[in-house]
Amino acid sequence: MKSNTLGVVIALGISLAVTGCKPKPARENAELAPGPLPSSPALGPVTFLDFPVPAPPALTPALLARGQAVFARDCAACHGVKGDGHGQCSAFLLPRPRDFTRAEYRLRTTPSGALPTDADLFRVVSLGVNGTPMPPWRFLLAETDRWAVVEYVKAFSPRFAEAAGRKPSLVDLGAPPPRAAAAVAAGHQLFERMGCANCHGPTGQGDGPSAYSLTDDSGQHIAARDFSKPSGFKAGYATKEIVRGFLTGFN
Fold first, then answer.
1. What CA–CA distance (Å, rounded) separates 132 from 54?
2. Distance between CA atoms of 204 and 225, rounded to whole angstroms?
3. pTM to 2 decimals?
4. If you average pLDDT over residues 76-96, what whole number do you get?
């Protein structure tokens, strides 16, 4: 009985904390009419690369204004009004919300250190990020609203303006070889030779000797991926997503 009561109290506390983090909309945001939602959004797991990206609308002042309004209503509570990751809820979230002013993105189809494509950003907004508080907005925001948010998020960093007009370079995943014992054995050798076990551990459970000293650029502790738990893969548990992660890295 005591255990059940404690569980209810904890659940109520979390509910109140989340509800309390919902920012009061500004006057103009309170009148923001919702865009038309998909009539029957696809259910079930979808990997990052498999998510279809529609053609973006024309970039206009009205689209940017729409993105700013949607961001203020739905995103600023976590990512902050300035896009710096210091929203009202940020202290309660693990991992911390993305700082858009740094323009450092993890899920991309571009080389390490490069900016993501607009399609990459649209996929992240639509699908969310596994293992984080970032939800899949494809169920809550219309396509135009998601594109509007993408354009507004890009405005937080001058890097996107500097790269405007340049065609991004994409990583080449190559053709996957057939899964065979020889390929697994070669992968085992590469895992050891490249020092993967130092962070991910000899059995891939994220418990290597360096795992507990890892931090991100802001000094926050980060955990090495536990390969034995497929649900933790941020972009989906598929061979091509894992290969994409190898080739792009996580900025």
1. 25
2. 8
3. 0.83
4. 94
